[in-house]
Design a protein that fits this description.
There is one protein chain. With about 210 residues, the chain is of the alpha/beta class. The chain is built from seven helices and seven strands; from the N terminus they run E-H-E-H-E-H-H-E-H-H-E-E-E-H. Strands 1, 2, 3, 4, 5, 6 and 7 form a seven-stranded mixed beta sheet that branches. Helix 1 links the parallel strand 1 and strand 2. The longest helix has about 35 residues. The protein is globular, with a radius of gyration of 17 Å. About 40% of the residues are buried.
């Protein structure tokens, strides 16, 4: 019997907004029957600075290594913006995948993103776009969210975009993910899980047919 599809949720979070989205993303993934595990990216800021900015303790999650990315069929990355781009901590992880690039071990895998910004116009699209060159060079397929109905509702502020689920934390981080933002995160997880599950089942079926020839 073939192994079930495996999806990793890899996050970097300071004030836990992204972690709250990630919990819903993972629930959406689990609803599809895929195997999923959540990791966090290694922090590079010193404890003294984290204390000055009143950052809470990190979530109780294992630290991902570049090599572990090779084990998943798909990966959903979640992180806050840094001036409209991915944080240095996430870039450090991705920059550490040179061996995977040389061996092609990430080629053919799937990736998606979700994010947090300080304001409505703080990078809800550009933050995701900064990951596309990396995925392209690795031969990975980027899976966007598209536009669920929640993102077209203009009666309230809603983070996220066609690139992925998102939340707006506010300049001081006081705003928490809304019910609608969490719903979108769940939807993204389910959509991604459904697609990865179908792909892996099809890939396994094709391999089985080829082995009979």
């Amino acid at each position: 019997m073939s192994a079930p599809a495996k999806v990793y949720v890899v996050i970097y979070t300071v004030y836990h907004h992204v972690h709250k989205l990630a919990v819903e993303v993972q629930k959406g993934l689990e609803s599809t029957g895929v195997t999923t595990k959540m990791f966090q990216v290694q922090e590079t800021l010193p404890d003294s600075l984290l204390k000055k900015i009143n950052a809470p303790p990190k979530p109780d999650l294992p630290i991902i290594t570049p090599e572990q990315l090779n084990d998943a069929d798909g990966i959903l990355f979640g992180f806050p913006t840094r001036f409209g781009s991915m944080p240095a901590q996430v870039k450090g992880l991705l920059d550490g995948t040179g061996a995977a690039f040389a061996k092609g071990t990430l080629h053919g895998k799937f990736a998606g993103t979700f994010f947090s910004t300080g304001s409505q116009h703080g990078g809800q699209e550009t933050t995701a776009l900064t990951t596309i060159p990396y995925f392209t060079h690795q031969g990975m397929t980027y899976v966007p969210l598209g536009f669920p109905s929640q993102l077209t509702d203009n009666t309230e502020i809603v983070g996220g975009s066609a690139y992925g689920a998102g939340t707006i934390a506010g300049g001081d981080g006081s705003r928490q993910p809304s019910a609608k933002e969490l719903e979108v995160a769940h939807i993204q997880g389910k959509q991604f899980g459904d697609m990865i599950r179908a792909y892996v089942r099809g890939k396994n079926a094709f391999a089985a047919e080829e082995s009979k020839k």
